[in-house]
Amino acid sequence: MAMEESNITTYMEVEAENSDSDKDQNWDDWENGDEEDDAMNSKLLCLFCDSTYTSSNVLLEHCASAHQFNFNTLRTTLALDFYGCFKLINYVRSKVAENNCWNCGIVCRSKEDLLNHLHEVASFDNGKLPWNDDEFLKPFLNEDALLYSFDDDDEGEDDVDNMPIDKVELLKDIEQISIDEADLTLETEENKPITSSLSGGKSASMIDTTLNNGFVAAEAGVSSYRNPDDLDSSLYIAKVAANKIKDVNKNYFGGYSSYGIHRDMISDKVRTDAYRQAIMENPSLLKGAVVMDVGCGTGILSLFAAQAGASRVIAVEASEKMATVAAEIAKDNNLLWIGSKNEASDQHNGVMEVVQGMIEELKSTQKVQPHSVDVLVSEWMGYCLLYESMLSSVLYARDQFLKPGGAVLPDTATMFAAGFGRGGTSIPFWENVYGFNMSRIGKEIVKDASRIPIVDVIDSCDIITNSTVLQNFDLVTMKLEEMDFTAMVELELKGEISANGSTGSEPTTNWCYGVVVWFDTGFTGRFCKENPTSLSTSPHTPSTHWSQTILTFSEPIAMVSPGTLNIDKMAAVGTDACPAVKIQCRISVVRAAQHRSIDISMELTGIGPFGRKRNWPAQMFNLL
Length: 624
Fold this sequence. Notes:
This is type I protein arginine methyltransferase. With 624 residues, the protein is α+β, with helices and mostly antiparallel strands. The chain has 4 domains: 42-148, no CATH class; 158-255, no CATH class; 259-403, Rossmann fold (3-Layer(aba) Sandwich); 412-623, Hnrnp arginine n-methyltransferase1 (Distorted Sandwich). It is built from 19 helices and 22 strands. The radius of gyration is 30 Å and the shape is flat.
């Protein structure tokens, strides 16, 4: 699988980002939206005077400059969480209404006297915050818009800020959403750590030291304070993380509701033919088997399985729209199973059953018995193999539903890497545009590509080094944590490649502009005994909708074949004067903090003809 192209960067899109065409766009809709937002926020009342604002940021800046009340400094210094800030605002409003100084408590004769009296914040002895009382959870002003806008920067948290947080409810919510163990882990025993990739892997105990309904400010000489009656901050953080993951999943599965992406995948002949061959041409595996298809989409793989003689096909699809479509398609082809064996024969004329929901939810629904599946099939691969993190769902299905000794299709996956030359960049295109030199554009695009992974098709003639295995995965035995890995590859020129890509007799300096990554998946003889097959996304084979993932160096590295003697031993390795004979690449691929994305780091070492080495700064790429 692979998400819509609009979410992935190609060379064409890098060029678009550097153009001025966006100046010509019509922003009427955007401006209308701003006007609507302004209308909604037109009654943000200052905490101390009668001034009103349309932006909480502007209001709080006014409070800091005019009334000596720096909300953001207080929030940071006292480590106030949402509820601490909520209480603080209500406390200040209540004191101002009584002409009391919220800070020192002095009673003023009038509001004017109070405004003249306001002063910089004093320390709070012994960490006893006067607003740390549940009475200040009740809004002092009815419809106080500031209470719901001071936290506007924390997008995606609005849904949870006003929810009562119950630990049992939270555990249930987190258990029922699709998450990786690395995305969110919540242990059920009281006060156990909550870890989440969205919170940088911090435990609840660590979160509690920085996020309380009280505060922590030991460095400032103020003692730590925590009211045991306050809501557990760790649960609040976990709730936020859970809802962010839900939002990402909603957008992710919503993207697969478009028919266009399914047409792209089905019309990818390399992809579809490989699956069809593995399913249809291995009768000993499929005949009479119970098959589960994880992420069935239109149901094409499930239809193949039913056609191949499976006794039952469980097609699981999280997108409500596509689950309905898959069921209708199965029905149209007389393959949908409806009802029970006690009903009329024409009501159970098929073997395919479509289950709407995420695979992680099936265990609680009892729609599929544990360890009852003979064959698990899924087209889970994303760009750079691991983008989208759908592999975790396949591993979950394997562990929960596959019989001991059951088959996984495909059962292997291998990532490869190779170095590419300047032809793999957009530089050649811009060097001659109808006779004009526009190479400065190409250079700028290459510079941007050193930060952004490019998903595009690269021509095999632009591969200038050997191809080497980056990582192997055995889908039958691998563990979830193996999705994150670090590997070292060593690249050498493949023969003597001249500047135009042909093999020459004289040593020639070639420039390596980056590393291209692709993957193969195998339907091996372990399960496909009659007809094993494979699916390749290599630049040396017909292209697929996955293309390849291009990681561009921050600067090109000169390379020659081993044995070249005409070099400057004192020059920097990787330059024209002293080309490298090898490039060592240390590549790490990990699931990113943003759910379903991946982070890639690349560290390069050039090795000269006489063993001298040169290191380049590490590069970071994020595949969103």
